[in-house]
Amino acid sequence: MLNCLPQCGVEDLRLQETILKTIGLGKAFKGFSAVTNVNLNVARGTIHALIGPNGAGKTTCFNLLTKFLEPTSGQILFNGIDITKERPAQIARRGVIRSFQISAVFPHLSVLENVRVALQRGLGTEFHFWKSGDSLNILNERAEELLLEVGLADFAHEDTLNLAYGRKRALEIATTLAMEPELMLLDEPTQGMGHEDVERVTELIDRVAKGRTILMVEHNMKVISSIAHQITVLQRGSVLAEGNYQEVSNNPLVIEAYMGSQKGDSL
User: Fold this and answer.
1) 198 and 66 in one domain?
2) What's the CATH number where 24 sits?
3) Closest CA to 175 of 206, 193, 152
4) I want to staple 113 with a disulfide (CB 3.0 to 4.6 A). Which of 18, 109, 173, 175 is the partner?
5) Domain that holds residue 65
6) Strand-by-strand arrangement of the 47-51 sheet
7) 255-258 contacts: CB < 8 A, separation 24 or more?
8) Confidence (pLDDT) at 103
9) Which is it for strands 238-243 and 81-82: parallel, antiparallel or unpaired?
10) E strands within the chain?
11) Total domain count for the chain?
């Protein structure tokens, strides 16, 4: 069962330290504005959801934050430091770690080996291809701790290829945690899952969020309503509304953006 979600209002969140801030963030492609003047404030220690209809600019925002795309305008501040001009690797080293919509694990390695690969960066030996795999055994204890944290301890020696889809996403979260993120960016973590997997991964996100900060793009409103403290709604690349789930779900502009003029179960 998920923890009861604290209904944080905007004023409550302003009292918390901002870990990620964007000022007038924008991206244009040959005259088309995919993202326009996005001002985002993510409070430390919260789960912040970025939602919106298809084509709203959510994934483009993620690509801008991690510098897979260069902003056309605006600034990105992480812990008060301007990272707008930094490269993706520099941003990752600062502790901004992203997962992707598409599964990004190594299918022919074991579950434990996947986590060890992610942990290897801390050894500084990720390019030491001549070394035996046994040299990574010193990482086993930490890898097993992470697998326990995401509920995969019993699958440590299973080939990743054989994992159910929901468990592969849990493994991706474990490899993300292995990078010691200060801010985790989760891109559609429950996409393509059945009901049971959605519940399992939602509970996992809620659990691993303790003591961490998560910014997530997610379409499933049941997921958002159960774990998100703050929600930013995008429409056509711009911020349409912000607030907790109750505030956003009752906002007439948001209702119209999602449902036309009718409010339904999707929000």
Assistant:
1) yes
2) 3.40.50.300
3) 152
4) 109
5) 1-95+182-206+213-267
6) 96-98, 183-187, 213-217, 47-51, 230-235, 238-243
7) 257/52, 257/53, 257/233, 258/53
8) 60
9) unpaired
10) 18-29, 32-43, 47-51, 73-78, 81-82, 96-98, 183-187, 213-217, 230-235, 238-243
11) 2
Q: Do 139 and 198 lie in a common domain?
A: no
User: Same structural domain for residues 12 and 81?
Assistant: yes
User: In angstroms, rounded to a whole number, what is the distance separating the alpha carbons of residues 216 and 185?
Assistant: 6
Q: How far apart are CA 15 and CA 41, in angstroms?
A: 12
Residues 194 and 135 in one domain: no
- Predicted local distance difference test score (pLDDT) of residue 228: 97
Both tokens assigned to 159: 């080939």
* pLDDT number for residue 100: 66
Six token digits for residue 14: 């302003």
Residues 6 or more apart in contact with residue 77 via CB below 8 angstroms: 20, 21, 22, 23, 83
The first and second tokens of residue 210, run together, are 């303790």
Q: Does one domain contain both 84 and 168?
A: no
Question: Cα separations (Å) of 65 from 25, 74, 90, 146, 218?
Answer: 9, 11, 12, 26, 16
The CB-side HSE value for 122 (13 A sphere, CA atoms) comes to 17
Region 222-242 average pLDDT: 95
Q: Helix-strand-coil percent breakdown of the chain, rounded to 5?
A: 40, 25, 35
Same domain as 186, residue 81: yes
Q: What is the pLDDT of residue 126?
A: 45
Asked if 171 and 113 count as a contact pair (C-beta separation under 8 A), the reply is no
Q: Which amino acid is at 20?
A: L
What Cα–Cα distance (Å) separates residue 39 from each residue in 21, 137, 160, 169, 233? Answer: 7, 45, 39, 30, 11
Looking up tokens 């303790």 gives 210
The model's pTM is: 0.85
pLDDT at residue 174, rounded to an integer: 92
Whether the Cβ atoms of residue 95 and residue 106 lie closer than 8 Å to each other:
no
Residues 56 and 122 in one domain: no
